[in-house]
Amino acid sequence: MRTSIATVSLSGSLTEKLAAAARAGFDGVEIFENDLLASTLTPEDVRARCADLGLRIDLYQPLRDIEAVPEVEFARNLRRARHKFELMRRLGADTVLVCSSVSPHAVDDDALAAGQLSRLADAAREYGVRVAYEALAWGRHVSTYDHAWRIVETAGHPALGTCLDSFHMLSRGSEPEDLEGIAAIPGEKIFFLQLADAPLLAMDVLQWSRHYRCFPGQGGFDVAGLVRRVLATGYDGPLSLEVFNDVFRQAEAGPTAVDARRSLLLLQEAVGTAPLPGPVVPTGVAFAELVTPDAEPLAALLGALGFTRTARHRGKPVALWEQGEARILVNTGPAVRREGTQLAAIGLESPDPDGAARRAEALLAPVLPRRRAPQDAPLDAVAAPDGTELFFCATGRPELPDWRADFEDTGLPSERTDIRGIDHLALTQPWHHFDEAALFHRGVLGLDAQESVDVADPYGLMRSRAVTGADGSVRIALTVGAAPTDDTVHAQHIALATDDVVAAARRFRDAGGRPLPVPANYYDDLAARFEFADGELETYRDLGILYDRDAQGVFRHCYTRTVGRVFFELVQRDGGYRGYGAANAPVRLAAQHAVRALTGG
Amino acid sequence: MRTSIATVSLSGSLTEKLAAAARAGFDGVEIFENDLLASTLTPEDVRARCADLGLRIDLYQPLRDIEAVPEVEFARNLRRARHKFELMRRLGADTVLVCSSVSPHAVDDDALAAGQLSRLADAAREYGVRVAYEALAWGRHVSTYDHAWRIVETAGHPALGTCLDSFHMLSRGSEPEDLEGIAAIPGEKIFFLQLADAPLLAMDVLQWSRHYRCFPGQGGFDVAGLVRRVLATGYDGPLSLEVFNDVFRQAEAGPTAVDARRSLLLLQEAVGTAPLPGPVVPTGVAFAELVTPDAEPLAALLGALGFTRTARHRGKPVALWEQGEARILVNTGPAVRREGTQLAAIGLESPDPDGAARRAEALLAPVLPRRRAPQDAPLDAVAAPDGTELFFCATGRPELPDWRADFEDTGLPSERTDIRGIDHLALTQPWHHFDEAALFHRGVLGLDAQESVDVADPYGLMRSRAVTGADGSVRIALTVGAAPTDDTVHAQHIALATDDVVAAARRFRDAGGRPLPVPANYYDDLAARFEFADGELETYRDLGILYDRDAQGVFRHCYTRTVGRVFFELVQRDGGYRGYGAANAPVRLAAQHAVRALTGG
C-alpha cells in the first residue's frame, strides 16, 4: 500500500518537511494549509519539488466550517472553496479534506449538510477535485464517522466521499461494535484514511488531539484493528499519518519522518499488507562496550567489581573484562564522540544474527559495516535511534562468526565470581525521541515494552520505560530527562546480576571500590516500612544497599560512583521481583547530584 | 498571617529548598518526606538549619494509607506511623498530614476510619504530634473535605483535626454551596490549610494534581474565596503553598520561591489580611530602551521608520529617538548583558511613580537605584522577572522628576508623523517563569491578563499572553518559546501605532527600510477569506502588510527585519480591534526563520 504523511506531523519549513518525508521513503504527503501559507514556494514550486522528490500530493487540508449554514453564508464558503480548488489545481492535488463544522452558525440538519456538500462537490469537480468529508470528534453537529457517512450517502455525489481518521474515531472510546459501521461503507467511497495513535489520557479531546497524538504503535489505540476493518471495505488509498504533537514540532524532521515510516511498516506487518523479515528476539546480552578517552578509572572500577581483563582485541585498543557471563569491552580507540566515557554499543545474543539485522534494516535502522577491519569477524550490527550500536552476536556458536574470535586471551586468571551476568542496561534517550525508542526496541528487536514511569529527580521529573525479552534475559531501561536540555545530564548504567549483593558489595568496598553513599534517612524510612531480621538493615546501611519489594519478591541493589557518563549497579533479584527499584530512584538521583556538587563533576 | 511552603514546590536538594524559602521571606515550611529521605542532612541537622534560617517546620507530610483497614494491617500502619512520629520529634515538627486512603484494602466504614484515626492520634500525642486528616480528591472512600471532617468530628480526639487543601476541594468543580460546609468546622479543628491554584483543564484529576498545580492567582480557581471562608472559621494557622508542577521542578528554586511568596502576598491582599500599597496602573508608555553594542543598524532602522534623534543623555551614551508619542532610547553604554541588541527597559507613565515603586517593592520586585549617576533625575524603577527594567515615569509633569530632563536636545527637526506612539511591546519570557510573568504584571502593575494563546512556530508551539491597561494605553505581550532551549531564540519587538499603515509602510520602504517579506501564498489565502476593494490586496502584497479581523474591527500590520534580538512592527487598529494579529503570527515566524536561514543570522 502507498504511505503518506501530513506536513503538520513534521517540523520546519515546507521544504524541510518534504525532503524529510521523501528521504524516509514515503510515497506521498498531505499538504497542511498553514505550511503552504508560510512557505516562500509558490504552489507550482511545491508541485515541482514533490515531483522531483517522488512524492504525490495525496491530500490538501483542511477546509473548515463549510456545511449546514444559511444560504448567504454558504455562498461565501463556496467562494472561499473555489479559491482553494484553484490553488489545488496549481498544486496538482486532487483530494481536499472537509472537516465537519464547528461553527456556531451551523445547524443540525443532515439534509441541508448533504445538499450543500453536494453543491461543494459540484464545484470541486470543475477543478478535478474530490471532496473527503470527515467527522471531527468535537464537530458541532457531526462528530462520528457513521454520521458523516450517512450525510455523504444522502448526498450521493460521485465527487463526495468520506475521510476516516483513527484519532477521531478511537478517541471517543469506540467499542468494537461502534466500528462495525465501517463495513457498511463501500471502499470506493472512503476517499482517504488518516492514522494517528495517542496515549490513553483522560482529557479534553480537542487538547488531546492537538498536542498528544503519536504514531501508530506508540500510543494505546488499536489502530491496526481499525485499519483491518477499513481494508476489508476495499479501500485502496494511502495509509496516511496525521499527527499533531508538541514534541515532534520541536524535533528534527528527519528522524521524526523515519520514526513515522517505521510505525507504518509495523502497522502494515500487523494487518498483513507488507511482510517483513520476522522478529528475532535476542536471548541475552553478549557484551556492553564502553568508549573512554582514559581507561584507568574504568579499569580500577571494573577491578574492584571483580572483573578480570581476560582478553584484548587483535587489531584495536579494546580490552575485554569478564566475570561470569558479564562481559564489558573497554574501547580506548579514537572516540567517535568526544563526550568522555560512555556506553556506546551492546552485543545481543541472537538465534539468527543475520535475520535480526535484516529485520532492523527493513525497519529503517542504519546498518553498520559488517567488518570494522579486514581481519575482524563479520558481525551484524545496526544503530538504535539514540546512536547506540547494537551487535547481533552468536557467542561460542562455531557455525557462526564469533566476535570473541577477534580477541586474544591475556591469560590473566579470573579470581572472583560475585557477578553472574548483566541484569539490565539503562540508556539515556534523546528527549525528542523517547516514544520512538520504545517502538524501535519493540518493533525491531521484538522486546516487550513495560509501562512508562515518572521518577522525581531533584531538578525535574524523569521518565523511564523498560523493554524486555519474555524470559527476562534481556532488559533495557530507556530513560529521558525532564527537558531537552537534560539530554546529556543523566548517566547511563550497567546493572550486574549477583546472587549475593551483600557479599558483592562488601568485596567491592574491600577492593577499594567507592559505592554511591546513601543517606541515613533512607534507612530510617526502610525501618518504618518493612521488618528486617536482626542486623540486616545495619548491613544495608553499612554497604549502601537499597531495598524494594513487590508482590512477587525482593530487590536489593547498590551503585558505584559515576565515571564519565556511566555507572554500575549491583542487583540481586529474589522470588521473581520484576521491577528496577524505581521507588528508590529519587534517592539514587539525589545522591548522584550531591556527589557531583561535591566533586564538581 | 504566617506563610509557609511545601518543599516539594521547589527544586533542588533540601538544603537549596530551605535556603530559597527563607530568602523569599517565608515563615515556615512543610517537609515533604521524599525530600528528607534523599537528603544527607540528619533530622537534627534539618531542625538546626531551619532554626538558623528562621523557618518553622509547620508540617511533616504525608502519611498515606493509614485508616479503615483490617486490624492486622492497621497494627502495621501504626508501627510505621510511630517511626515517623519519632522522626518528627527529632525534626521538631508538631503536625503530620494524613491523606485519605487510596489502598485497595481500605473499607467504606466511617466508624472504623474514625476509630483508627483516634488510635493514631493517641499514639501521636505521646510524641507531642497532632494529626491533620485530609481528603484526597481521588481518595478511595473519602474524597471530599466535608466527609473527612465528619470522620474527624466522629473521632472527637483533641490531637486529631482536618487539613483543608484548595486543590482537592476546588478541582472537584465545587460550586459555592459545596463550600458552605467549611463554616460548620470550628477553626481550631482545622489544623492546616494548603493552597494551590491550577489552570482549568479537563483531565484526570490525579495527573492534573501531580503535574499542573500552580501558585494562587496563576490558575483558574477562586482560591481567595476559599481562604475567606476558612478564615471566617477562626483558623489561625499558616497559609501554606503545596504545588506539584513539572515546570517548577526544573526551575531554579530561588525565583520560584519569590514567585510563590508574591502570590501569597497578593492573596492576603485579596482577603484583607495584609494591606499592600495600592496598585498604580500605568497610563502609557513613556519610552522603550534598547541596548546595543553598535548603534548604526538601529539608527538606520529608526531613521527609515521616520524617527528623529531629538536628544542625547547629558551623562551617558544614550540617544533619544522620537516620533509622535513614540520614544525609543538607544543605549550604547557598557552593556549589562552581552547578548547584542535587545530591549532592556520600559518607561511606564505613572500617575504616582513613588507609589508604583512602593507596591512593586512590597511585592518583592528588586528596586533599582533611583539615580544612575549623581546628576540624573531620581527615577523609580524595578526589575521585572525577565530582567527588563521598568521605570515609573512622569513625563512632562513639572511637579515630579522627569527622565526627559536628563536629556539635551539635538535641535534636529522631526520630519515625519506616520507614527503616533507605541501600540504594544512584546517581551520574551524565561521558559520556566511564564506564569510568574503574567502574575507579576497583573499583581504588581495592576494590568489585566488576557487568555494565553498557542502560536505555531515552524520549530515548536509558542505561547503568548497579553497584559493590558483597561483603556489599551499600555499593552505588553508576554511570549515564551516551546522549550527551555528556546529562551533566546525568539525576538522581542516594539509595535508602533499608526493611523495609516499603508502610508507608513510605503515611506519606510522608500526611505531604504527593509520590510519582512511575506509569502505570496498568504495573500492568496486572504483573497479566499475576505473581500477587498479593488487594488487593496495588491497594496498589502506589495508592502508586506498582514490583515486580520475580529468581531470589533480590522487590524493591519507589517514588520521590519530583526536587529539583534529586536524588530519593529507597524500597527493600525480600526474599529476597536483588540487582538495582536495572532492568526498571522505563524506566517511571521516562518518568514523570520526563512530570513535567518538565508542570512545565517
Automatic annotation (TrEMBL), chains A, B:
Gene3D superfamilies tied to this protein: 2,3-Dihydroxybiphenyl 1,2-Dioxygenase, domain 1, Divalent-metal-dependent TIM barrel enzymes
Catalyzed chemical reaction(s): 3-dehydroshikimate = 3,4-dihydroxybenzoate + H2O
GO molecular function annotations of the record: 3-dehydroshikimate dehydratase activity; dioxygenase activity; metal ion binding
EC number(s) reported in the record: 4.2.1.118
Pathway stated in the Swiss-Prot or TrEMBL entry: Aromatic compound metabolism; 3,4-dihydroxybenzoate biosynthesis
Cofactor(s) the protein needs: a divalent metal cation
A Pfam short name: AP_endonuc_2
InterPro entries assigned to the protein according to its UniProt record, in alphabetical order: DSD (IPR043700), Glyas_Bleomycin-R_OHBP_Dase (IPR029068), Glyas_Fos-R_dOase_dom (IPR004360), IolE/XylAMocC-like (IPR050312), VOC_core (IPR037523), Xyl_isomerase-like_sf (IPR036237), Xyl_isomerase-like_TIM-brl (IPR013022)
Enzyme category, top tier: lyase
HAMAP family linked to this entry: DSD
Similarity annotation: Belongs to the bacterial two-domain DSD family.
Function: Catalyzes the conversion of 3-dehydroshikimate to protocatechuate (3,4-dihydroxybenzoate), a common intermediate of quinate and shikimate degradation pathways.
This protein's name: 3-dehydroshikimate dehydratase
